[in-house]
Amino acid sequence: MARIVASVNVSHVPAIGAAIDLGKTQQPYWAPVFKGFDFSRKWIADLKPDVIILVYNDHGSAFSLEIIPTFALGCAAEFPPADEGWGPRPVPVVKGHPELASHIGQSVILDEFDLTIVNKMDVDHGLTVPLSLMFGQPREWPCRIIPLPVNVVQYPPPTGNRCFQLGKALRKAVESYHEDLRVVIFGTGGMSHQLQGPRAGLINRSFDSNFLDKLVTDPVALTRIPFLEYVREAGSEAIELVMWLIARGALDAKVREVYRFYHVPTSNTALGHIILENLPKSGGAARKARAGGAKSRAARAPKARAAGKRRAA
Ligand code: DHB
Ligand code: FE
Q1: In terms of CATH, what superfamily is 3-293?
Q2: pLDDT value for 306
């Protein structure tokens, strides 16, 4: 069966994409940002996921105020980079996984989460920047990617609890897929940010660090944060953080924090990044993994495992 083994949560600031595309990653402003992803790039290269479910929000590139799906599921074979005003980013076309996506759609919709099925869609910085941070500038993205856009642009966004429950339904869907696939789920956007108005540039470090801590230890507490609290405490676009709860809901109740990075400022926002892994299963599943099945992480990633939890900044 397919299995979600880890989550990657990361901000998707568009200026990061521009810094990569324009060769500025070693400039003094940007070098500390990209250094914060050295561990993550190695971690994901060792893990070699087959599929990423990438939870993000579209920023008026594929959808507009004419059509606003609360939750959508990218079922196409390919998703080209969107033109966000300066031409499409020079990044590979995203290759989807139509079979798994259709299976997820069926499972999740029959589980009473009515996702909008999307068979044609361009993908913007919300999706491409996290891929660039984790994989650099490859000719092709190294795995299949299923985009899952969430409305956090137009009020009302879904609640944190609804997002968390969707994560659980996604997990159930993945685990009922017949093929052995290693799946990683990305939750993107956040952290503190307010892009406009008199409070533009607002950063609330203690809100962010509490969110990161609780994401590991008590995500259910985060599911009770109301919309207005995100906006008041951490800025109008901090509501993007509800998407991190989809990724968290798809993991076990107890997880291992593998890595954390927090950096201010990035553009005029706080950049947050955390990697969580499900703990190795005891009993039959673990024995099977140890026996050298396709999913034996010990064989694939001895260094990342030995390194244990890492923190930067
Ligand atoms: C910016 C835009 C975003 O969508 C985001 O998530 C963070 C920052 C920006 O324009 O700086
Ligand atoms: Fe955004």
Answers
A1: LigB-like (3.40.830.10)
A2: 39
